[in-house]
Specification:
The protein is an alpha+beta fold. 35% of the residues lie in helices and 22% in strands. A 6-stranded antiparallel beta barrel has the order 7-8-14-13-10-15. A 4-stranded parallel β-sheet has the order 2-1-5-6, with helices on both faces. The longest helix is centred in the first third of the chain and has 28 residues.
């Protein structure tokens, strides 16, 4: 019997069926150990010794693997075919060696690009050894990310209160978003005019031609800069005669693009389907690991973390047969298409993302997949098959026209495109963002029959005013594209990078656009001012290239770390003498448009509008940055720092408390005020005064006595429940407006409902909430936000949102999600790890496990050097799955 180690329990189940009874397939659940999240886990002074630790759940899984290996004939390490997968195999092997369970047994590494019987059996027949340079690249990357995070973040915390941590790649990605926002703020719109003529052919067909030259000079784009110039040119065309100079019809071929890589899949899924990068990878993971197709679990796509653009020869042959069968001979090119990869590291450039079987068309598998799965599978199938189809044939027609008016001449041009043969477009067309043209070849429309030297009749002259627009904010798709162009990070890390920026509240997403928040812009400005080199695009890209060269065996990973640490540590030391006033002065200049927005009265935005003499500046408080007056405490003007500053007038209006009346019950004065976190209502004075922030959407200028009383009086008693006799109340909490009854909450749709909902409606809403979980009594169980799949032992694993936040549920086991974790982004592997850890903490077993803890676990916890390879672990925090 041989032991096979994979990452996912879902894969383990499927692969065990393929291999049969001679193999035992076990799952590692992602990484089995990691660097502890504390200072001192990487020691530069000891030649970058790395201290690893194993959490309880991973220790139990490793014990199961070790026990199986003891009685086995050999070990196959079959984790994913990428750098992280190689690292997981290396960690497993290193830990098994320390446990002394191998005893000369055969150990082989196998990789398969798809979870199909053929792919798995072929891989098992062609094993290899662990790729040491690839592991070295993992160790270097892990150490670099750790050293940056755990040395730069404390500097941020000391010098920029309220800021969170800074990552090596995340900081550069954040800079891209913030730089674009600065471009938008600095942008000055310019006026321009477009002029066109609606003309008619002798056959009565109308078409539009654009003005491209006048008085013998070619007009550059946006060359007509004002209404006067536009008016003169329009007058010239109004009285002109029109004749066709030339008509040229030029055939153009458009070739298909290659199959998807990780980054192009994320971009296309964002543009075409509206999926976030993390959502795309989550769905792709499921399609890769396997779906039940008529009683058989089979992987529908190849591995989804890849830089490669080429398909395997057998896949190309299958795609060509499918094209012939489904589209016809006309759509099949004479020769197969081959694509070359731009990836610098061939070891990480695996096969492109494609269907495992092109005959499994989307229509054939639709009934087995949920709505999101079929949409993503269809996208991958269409792009894969289109990559081997014939070119689209397009005829592009250009007509040059001369307008003459009393000796003055102007040139016009009409352009049209016609698809003569759709070719690959019959299978796949890509959606573009931010005004980019589609690839369907028909962007100019179709022209009627136009012949050279014939006279045209003028129908109408159109003169339209326009204004240049600032560059668009990045979407996830366009940011990923930019990061890939610059060589920042690697495609397999993009989803996690973007998720980190959202989780730390550095950016928010509105209408699919990434908007940097004030704290994100502060962090970026600080790093650009005092750690310039480490957020430079070229420096980050160069470091990525060095990591690629390590994995190719061309560089020593320890030397790369030494070179980096020398300069980085010196920079850290320099900031220790940095005074907060220096930081604030620098940030005031770097973020001037944000900190000092233009005043409507045209006054100096840096002068306090309340006292008229103080200078406004950034101030740092316990909870972050805000804008305040230099004349404090005589002038107590403050304003919240926000990327959406509506703000200066609002701040001035609320600087002095505005009296709204007196509470008739307490006799205390109600005032409207403004603080660092926005406007609020206060009743009374001093530390015991009650305060209530204005709900989202409420404007200070709309607040009157009635609204202030209603807000400060929350929670509001609605009435007693007719069955329990207990009070139902409404209020506004951290997660929005709510109803509360007997310790159980129900959501309200709007803030206004808090003040207006009646008893009957409240009872109905509470009943609806309770009925979502029959048999559990009045409290009920929260409805599932999403279903992740089945547990290896049976039963569904779901994500739910409870009273104390989101959690994963399996049967009677509930495991709270880590703080900041997006419940929509959690993978089944992460959920299984949380459930396993939670189940392992059952009170009944605590004492027994504590007594039975083997001495080997203590030995495993001792850290040893990693001059060649790290040799030890320490037991601490849960190991994190690598899946995004």
């Amino acid at each position: 019997m041989n032991v096979v180690v994979v990452e996912s329990p879902a894969k383990a189940k499927t692969i065990n069926k393929y291999l049969g009874s001679g193999y035992k397939v076990l799952a590692s659940f992602g990484h089995v150990r990691d660097l502890p999240a504390k200072d001192g886990s990487v020691l530069p002074d000891q030649d970058f010794e790395m201290l690893w630790e194993v959490d309880g759940a991973s220790a139990k899984r490793m014990k199961d693997i070790a026990d199986a290996v003891k009685s086995s004939d050999g070990l196959f390490l079959a984790t994913d075919p990428d750098r992280e997968g190689e690292a997981i195999s290396w960690h497993v092997l290193d830990m098994l060696n320390k446990k002394r369970v191998l005893n000369g047994k055969s150990v082989k590494r196998v990789v398969f690009n798809a979870i199909t019987k053929k792919a798995v059996l072929d891989a098992m027949a062609d094993p290899r050894d662990i790729d040491v340079p690839l592991v070295d690249a993992y160790l270097a990357r892990r150490a670099l990310d750790y050293l940056v995070g755990f040395n730069l973040s404390p500097v941020l915390w000391r010098k920029l209160p309220g800021a969170r941590s800074a990552g090596r790649v995340q900081s550069v990605a954040l800079r891209l978003v913030c730089d674009r926002e600065s471009e938008i703020e600095r942008f000055i719109s310019e006026e321009y005019w477009n002029i066109s003529a609606l003309l008619k052919t002798p056959r009565g067909d109308e078409f539009e031609a654009r003005l491209v030259s006048a008085h013998g000079k070619r007009l550059q784009p946006r060359a007509i800069g004002n209404g006067e110039d536009a008016g003169r040119l329009k007058a010239l065309l109004e009285g002109a005669s029109y004749i066709v100079d030339t008509v040229e019809a030029k055939p153009v071929k458009r070739n298909p693009g290659p199959p998807f890589t990780t980054s192009t899949l994320q971009q296309a899924a964002s543009s075409n389907l509206g999926f976030s990068a993390s959502r795309t990878m989550q769905i792709a993971q499921k399609l890769y690991e396997g779906v039940d197709i008529g009683g058989e679990t089979v992987g529908l796509i190849t591995y989804m973390r890849t830089d490669g653009v080429q398909m395997a020869p057998e896949a190309i042959d299958a795609a060509r047969r499918a094209i012939l069968d489904q589209f016809g001979e006309r759509y099949l090119p004479e020769k197969a298409r081959f694509y070359s990869t731009k990836a610098k590291n061939a070891q990480e450039a695996h096969e492109a993302i494609r269907p495992t079987d092109f005959y499994r068309s989307p229509d054939r598998v639709r009934k087995f997949l949920d709505a999101d799965q079929i949409r993503l599978y269809e996208l991958i199938w269409k792009r894969g098959i289109a990559s081997q189809m014939a070119s689209a044939e397009i005829e592009r027609t250009t007509a040059e026209i001369t307008a003459e008016n009393k000796g003055e001449k102007a040139g016009l041009r009409a352009v049209g495109s016609v698809i003569r043969f759709d070719g690959f477009i019959a299978a796949y067309t890509d959606q573009k963002e931010d005004g980019e043209q589609s690839d369907d070849g028909d962007e100019d429309g179709r022209l009627p029959e136009i012949n050279a030297r014939e006279t045209l009749a003028k129908q109408k002259i159109n003169s339209t005013q326009h204004f240049t627009e600032p560059p668009p904010r990045y979407s996830e798709a366009s940011l990923i594209k930019k990061m890939e162009e610059l060589g920042i990070g690697r495609p397999s890390t993009y989803a996690a990078t973007l998720a980190t920026l959202r989780d730390r509240d550095y950016v928010t997403i509105d209408k699919r656009k990434l908007i940097p928040q004030a704290k994100g812009r502060l962090v970026t400005a600080f790093l650009e001012s005092f750690f310039t080199k480490y957020v430079e695009y070229d420096f980050t890209a160069d470091l990525e290239e060095k990591l690629d060269r390590i994995s190719a065996g061309e560089l020593n990973w320890k030397q790369v770390l030494r070179d980096f640490w020398k300069d980085f540590f010196a920079q850290i030391e320099d900031t220790k003498e940095l005074r907060v006033t220096n930081v604030l002065d620098s940030l005031n200049e770097a973020l001037a448009p944000l900190v000092f927005p233009k005043r409507e009265d045209g006054g100096d935005p840096r002068i306090c509008q309340v006292c008229g003499t103080g200078n406004l500046s950034l101030k740092l408080g316990r909870y972050g940055a805000f804008v305040g007056c230099s004349n404090y405490p005589e002038c107590n003007y403050t304003r919240q720092l926000s990327s959406e500053n509506g703000g200066e007038a609002e701040g001035v209006a609320l600087n002095e408390p505005k009296s709204l009346g007196t509470d008739p019950t307490t006799g205390e004065e109600l005032t409207l005020r403004s603080g660092r976190f926005g406007p609020y209502i206060q009743r009374g004075d001093g530390k015991e005064a009650k305060r209530a922030s204005l709900p989202k959407g409420w404007k200070p200028e709309d607040i009157d006595y009635e609204k202030a009383m209603a807000l400060i009086s929350l929670p509001r008693d609605i009435g007693k429940h007719p069955e329990t006799g207990k009070m139902i109340s409404s209020g506004i909490g951290r997660y929005g407006p709510f109803l509360l009854h007997d310790g159980s909450y129900a959501n309200l749709e709007t803030v206004e409902d808090v003040f207006s909902v009646g008893l009957n409606r409240a009872v109905t809403l509470i009943a609806e909430k309770a009925n979502k979980a029959p048999g559990r009594g009045a409290r009920g169980t929260p409805a599932a936000l999403k279903t992740l799949g089945d547990h290896p032992d049976g039963g569904a694993i779901t994500v739910r949102d409870g009273k104390y936040g989101p959690y994963v549920n399996w049967g009677k086991v509930n495991a709270t999600l880590p703080k900041g974790k997006d419940p929509q982004a959690i993978t089944i592997e992460e959920a299984l790890a949380l459930i396993t850890e939670k189940a392992g903490k059952a009170p009944a077993g605590k004492t027994a496990r504590a007594k039975a803890k083997p001495k080997a676990a203590a030995a495993e916890a001792k850290a040893t050097k990693t001059a060649a390879k790290p040799k030890a672990t320490k037991a601490k925090a849960p190991a994190k799955s690598k899946k995004s």
